[in-house]
Design a protein that fits this description.
77% helix; mainly alpha
Length: 245
């Protein structure tokens, strides 16, 4: 049911960012039909849950950034959601850092000057709260990073890893590579056209592009950099970045 929840949350996030019911409907449709979401929605693993928590955290942060006087419960809700996400999988931390960067850029670029400092301090306080709540698990995390070599030995081939991510994000886990490459070309062209249109449009479009870019790039780049030092990688580790597309 986490895949279903993700679909609803993507609609809410798109509506909040783009202020368009049509965009929200398309976001929900793409999420509901995306092969990677469908694949992990059927597995008894944490990736569908992680994606749902990530989208909820993103929605809350976007709402907090755009509200002059947000309800008091929003920041505690974000802290709880973000903490649940990093306990679900520690790679959620990379997404949270990307979302925090997008939030700060949003606040300092598009929000009233009188609110910038207060909103920035609120984000810092929330981040420290998440870190404090995650502290009991840090020892286990560092132990796992030092001792787990369960996937391969040797150096990570970044190009192959990026191709795996691209194929998974377009065709899912069950599509053959020769078919996935063609899907990737089509998906890439559509994505490029969307980027150009958003960039040339009004400020709401650029705001969407800001969150989408950091949502997609921050987890992928961070996980790949970590995998260079700790040779453990699978495309599903960066599934949390999928909503950025």
């Amino acid at each position: 049911w986490f895949a279903t929840l993700t679909t609803a949350l993507m609609a809410a996030l798109a509506l909040r960012l783009a202020n368009s019911a049509r965009v929200a409907l398309l976001a929900a449709l793409f999420t509901a039909l995306h092969p990677l979401v469908l694949y992990y929605g059927q597995e008894a693993r944490m990736y569908a849950q992680l994606t749902a928590l990530a989208v909820l955290a993103g929605y809350l942060l976007v709402r907090l950034a755009g509200s002059d006087n947000p309800p008091r419960w929003l920041w505690p809700a974000f802290v709880v959601t973000a903490t649940a996400a990093v306990y679900t999988h520690y790679f959620a931390l990379f997404l949270l850092l990307g979302l925090a960067a997008a939030y700060l850029f949003d606040v300092w670029r598009w929000q009233p000057a009188s609110l910038r400092r207060r909103k920035s301090v609120s984000l810092l306080t929330a981040g420290l709260a998440v870190l404090l709540l995650y502290t009991p698990w840090l020892a286990a995390l560092f132990g796992q990073l030092r001792g787990d070599r369960s996937y391969w030995t040797g150096a990570l081939k970044v190009q192959e890893a990026l191709l795996d991510v691209a194929l998974a994000f377009t065709g899912g886990e069950s599509v053959l590579e020769r078919i996935g490459v063609w899907l990737l070309v089509g998906y890439g062209l559509v994505t490029l056209l969307a980027i150009v249109r958003l960039w040339r449009g009004a400020e709401p479009g650029r705001r969407v592009l800001l969150y989408a870019a950091l949502w997609l790039l921050a987890p992928v780049v961070a996980v790949l950099l970590l995998a260079v030092a700790v040779p453990k990688f699978n495309a599903r580790y960066v599934m949390v970045a999928l909503p950025g597309l």
